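Troubleshooting: if your tokenizer reports a length mismatch, compare your output against this known-good record of 363 residues.
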Amino acid sequence: MSRPMILLNPGPVTITDRVRNTFLQEDLCHREPDFAELILDIKKRLARVYEDSAEGYQAVLMTGSGTCAVEAMISSLVPKDGKLLVIANGVYGERIAEMAEVHGKNFVLVKAPWPEAMPLEEAERHLQNDPEISHVTAVHNETTTGRLNDMDALGELCVKYEKKLLLDAVSSFAGERIEFKKWNITALASTANKCIHGVPGLCFVLADEREMEKSHSAADSLYLDLFSYYEKQKTGFSPFTQATHVAVALQEALLELEDSGGWQMRMERYRSISVKLRDELDKMGIPRFLQENEYSSMLSSFHLPEGYSYEQLHDKLREAGFVIYAGQGGLFHQIFRIANMGDIRDEDVERLLRTFRQITGAA
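Known-good structure output:
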């Protein structure tokens, strides 16, 4: 059986046949008890992906993309009398600042140029001098460049200054190390269709249960009110229609994650592939965009090969059965990106490298 188109974009991912086959099951009604049981099981499995969050954190599911989860988290958990420190070094950090502005939150943005690390010295100056700051937010895996941001350092600041961390883990949950207690995480946002290897349509916020029980919603949106989902989902139901087929696929993807050794084994698998890709493309004269130790386990950025525009490179690879990703904003004419989440097999990697050798004349 031939392989499907291999998605090398950072979500949605190429799914396994095991997950794909869940769509052959019977349809479900979102108001039936068996669907509620399914949601309760998913919530339990999401919370225990990391041992650190198995006790004391609750998953809240919503129908939407990862952006939906991040916006619900920011809208619902940053109170009107609070202030959000947004730390950005890419598209997605800057997008959080846009969310805060749209929702009328009191916030301050500190940002670095996209190829650079988070501006933590500037962030600490704000934490030292602005007592109004109550929450801090940043992107764990900034897929603009593939940089894995230094959450140990940021978490240390959050603990030191007693600030609640709202983490965008959309592209890192189940594929990178996450320290809930050490980083002072109040909540993180993620999605089904990246490192979990589900399909698009469901996202979630994993939140400190104490925070959800003692606080009041600050949301100014009906659909994005995290607290209304939290209360309803205590029994497995939701205030609005959930993506039922996607939920079945998500449960199967979580079972598959557990069967394959959990997030640690997934991270190791990702890293073995991405390191190989960076090393081999470098030999072909396609250098990486960041330093080797700056990358996340599953996403790499590269300078465009000499003589190729992004569109030309994309089309050549698409003909061979691969979808890559462009650089964003001002990086569009400089770089391309390869993500290796999903059902990426050794033979897919070898075929991809053969294709690059043909493109570069290194074959």
